What does this fold into?
Amino acid sequence: MLTEMGKKFADALAAGKSATDAAIEAGYSARCATSIGLRLARDPEVIAHIARRWQAAPRYKRIETPVVPRQNVVYMDQFR
It folds into this structure.
């Protein structure tokens, strides 16, 4: 069961914040935010909370990385 701070951390992490920034935003001390953020980012409950949030999000809000076929990639070496 996630605490209220844990939920705030997970929401901030899902919104794109770094683990340290998410920990600070959730209310953890800035002095130990790095270690707490890294520990919480690997916590199975936090991961499950983020997954549930993503499942509940409308499709139009999701950002998906397009797959670029290798033959369409242009390398700068080709222009020398």
Observations:
- The CA atoms of residues 28 and 69 lie 43 Å apart.
- The mean pLDDT is 82.
- The two ends are 58 Å apart (CA to CA).
- The domain at 4-60 is CATH 1.10.10 (Arc Repressor Mutant, subunit A).
